[in-house]
Every structure is written in structure tokens, then in C-alpha cells.
Amino acid sequence: MGTVMQGSRILLIIGGGIAAYKSLTLIRDLKREGFRVVPVLTRAAEEFVTPLSVAALAGEDVHRYLFDLTREAQMGHIQLSRDADLVVVAPATADLMAKMAGGHANDLASTLLMATDKQVLIAPAMNVRMWNHPATQRNLALLRSDGIQRVGPEEGDMACGEFGPGRMAEPEHILAAIRLVLGRSRSAPLRLGPEVAARPLIGKHVVVTSGPTIEPIDPVRYISNHSSGAQGTAIAEALRDLGAKVSFVTGPATVPPPDGVEVIRVQTADEMRAAVEAALPADAAVMAAAVADWKVANRTEHKMKKDKGGMPVLEFAENPDILAWVSQLKARRPKLVVGFAAETDDVIANATAKRLRKRVDWIVANDVSTGTGTFGGADNTVSLILDSGVESWPRLGKAEVARRLANRIAEAL
Ligand code: PMT
């Protein structure tokens, strides 16, 4: 779905509210994803963000005036609103919503909204009392019956010092809603707001593995690896934030597990496999754990003694490959299975081979060679390997990698 949307043109109408600053982040995120953003500012929006900063981020002219004759000669407002693939209003203030519901056309934004033949997605933002006001709720009902799509508002502390619904949806939630709306036809509207659009994974169950496993040698010694659990934890959080029920199966990681998910703590690969099996069925599985490939076959029940003389000889046995096992399940296979590949050489080639060998839908390849800081670090440079090809992402914080991956999972589900 991502490649289809790349190049889609978003007419972004920025209304006059404090949340307008978040629209700058939205523009940046849309551009990063390959969308074209054509910005429109209302008069009031200019009190909150400058046309210059919007133009710089969008890389496009900012449209501000209905009676801009030069522009009218080059491109009428009808064309501006119809060239778009989607019209997004963020923030949609109480006033803009009222104008839309009443069919007003007395400035550029309201005229474009009247003239468009494309789907419209609004991200309302206002004080909680304004949101709850019967007039706003009446307008909302009208907009809904007109087929207008909505994302948010979200609940939380507001700039005015009050608490409740009214905060504009976070840019990543608006982005997820844009993808959802563009992926659907007008005859199948999303209709409802925060529950569906901002949290597209509500009702979905995802199993996430994370952290290292440890394989005992004797009661005091073990073999393990450097995974901190940071990447897996961030993925579980991002999926949770999109509304998924998450079963988080974690080895002994140094990063604490997220709140609001089911945490299943394990030590060994055998335990992790059993925990994943118990967590099924699931809609998706994301295997970010660094599972030890081998366990010690001749582990002892008592501490190995140095004074016995000679060197201990360890024998190894292969651990279950949890990812390959999940991918090759028949009836209980999650619809989407995502693996990771931790590589030190020929990252893409090795990860691609791993994807095919383990029959995984997607593999997230990351370079873990010395000096990258991938293990235990804050950032990660990954490539997403899909059936359709390879997408290489820039170096990002692990939370951002997780957020992007969660959004892609939401699209796929
Ligand atoms: O935890 P951090 O410090 O944040 O570091 C993140 C990470 C580097 C651990 C993470 O991004 C990552 O790459 N995880 C996968 C590590 C790994 O074991 O890669 P692999 O190439 O050996 O395994 C490939 C895939 O098979 C992985 O999805 C792994 O979970 C899975 N696997 C491997 C072996 C096994 N016995 N069972 C498995 O399920």
C-alpha cells in the first residue's frame, strides 16, 4: 500500500489553533513518506505558524487568499481542490467545522472544502468545552452524515490547562488515518474518529518477542547476547498506542517492559517458544528477540568446579527456531509474520535469504556489527524487506523505527 500512496497529493488546510504547530511535524512526516503536500493557511492559522515555515517544510507555495488574482489566473481554487488526492484539515477548529457543516465559502479554506470532489479528513482540535458544546456535536453529526472522515480528537492535558477530549491527534495518528482513508473507497468511509482512525489496531492481537534469551551452562553460568530489549519494547509500545492488544514475550532484558501490555517473562529459547505458542492465536507476530541459536546440551545441575582440573568441554544442541515455526503453522499462523535479521555482513543479501528460508512475510534487517551501537543503543538503521522489494530507512531512534513499523502493520492488517 505504501508505494501506491507515494506521490499522492495532500491538500493540507491548517486552521487557526494552537495545535497548528503539530501540522509542521505532519508536513515533515508526510514528505518523508513521499507524499506531496500543498498547504493552505487560514487567516487565523497565521497567528500560530508562519507561511514561511510551512512553505519551507512543504517545499511548495502556501495558498492563503481567495482573491489572489495572479494565482486565480494560473490555478483556480476549483482546480486546487480537485488536483488533490485527499483534503486534510488539521487542526480543524470549531469555527472551521461550523463553516463546513453550514456550507460557508467566504475564505480560501472554506471555498476549497465546498469545491472539492475528493474525500476530506478532519483532525479536530479545540478546548474540551468547545468540543463538548452541543453546537460542535451537532456540526460533527452533520459532517459525519456528509461522509467527512475524522481522526481524533485525543484526550489529555490541553494548552488551556484543562483535561479531556479536544487535543489534536498526534501527527503519526493523522498519518495512519491518511493511509487508511487513501486505501479505502468513498463508499467505505471510516466514519468514526479516534477509536477507528487513530487507533486502527483496536481489536487486533499482536505477539511481540523481545530481548535476549539465556542458555544455562550450569546453575551460575550462561550463554547470551547483547540485546537490551529496547527495540522490541518500542515496537510493543507503538502497537499498543495504535490500539492493539499486545502479548509481549521477553527474555531477561535490561530495558523495562512497557505498561499496558501482557508481559510474559522467559529465560530460554525453549521457554520463549512455549510462551509464543500459548499466546496464539494472533493477527500478527513480530519477532524482535535475539534468540540464542544453540543451547548447552551437557549443562550440569551443579556448578562446574575449576579444581577438577582440565577445561570444560561444552556440547551444543540447536534451539527451536521460533520465527520459522510460527511462519510455517497452518491454521494458527498469524496473518502477518514479521522477523528481524541481525547481520554483520552482507546485511540485505543475508536478510533476504533468511526471509525466504523462514517463510516470513517481512524481515527487518539491521546491521549489528561492532561500532553500529545497534545492540543496546538508542538508534537503529533498518531495511524493511518485503515481497515487493527492499525499503531502506534512514538512521532513526528505535521508537521511530517502531512507530513506522507499527503503522505499516496497521495498514497490512
Ligand atoms: O534489543 P536491542 O538492544 O534494542 O537490539 C535490537 C536487536 C538488534 C536485538 C533487534 O533489532 C534484532 O535484530 N532482533 C533479532 C535478533 C536475531 O536474533 O536475529 P537473527 O538474525 O539471529 O534471527 C532472525 C530472526 O529469527 C529474528 O526475528 C529472531 O527473533 C528469530 N529467531 C532466531 C533464532 C531462533 N532460534 N528463533 C527465532 O525466532
Features:
21 strands, 5-stranded parallel β-sheet, Rossmann fold, about 425 residues, elongated, alpha/beta, single chain, 8-stranded mixed β-sheet, 2 domains, binds ligand PMT
Detailed description of the structure:
The protein is of the alpha/beta class. It folds into two domains: 2-198, Rossmann fold (3-Layer(aba) Sandwich), CATH 3.40.50; 205-412, CoaB-like (Rossmann fold), CATH 3.40.50. It contains 16 helices and 21 strands. It has helices at 2-5, 20-32, 51-58, 69-74, 77-82, 94-102, 108-115, 128-132, 134-145, 171-182, 193-198, 230-241, 269-279, 322-327, 347-358, 398-412; strands at residues 9-14, 36-41, 86-92, 120-124, 149-150, 154-157, 163-167, 205-210, 215-216, 222-223, 245-250, 262-265, 284-287, 294-296, 316-318, 336-343, 362-367, 379-380, 382-386, 389-392, 396-397. An eight-stranded mixed beta sheet has the order 12-11-8-13-16-17-19-20, sandwiched between helices. The longest helix has 15 residues, at 398-412. 44% of the residues are buried. The model is unreliable at 185-196 (pLDDT under 50). The structure holds ligand PMT. The site of ligand PMT has 29 residues, from helix 12, helix 14 and strand 16. Residues 209, 227-232, 269, 287-291, 293, 319, 321-323, 339-342, 354, 366, 368, 374-376, 398 line the site of ligand PMT.
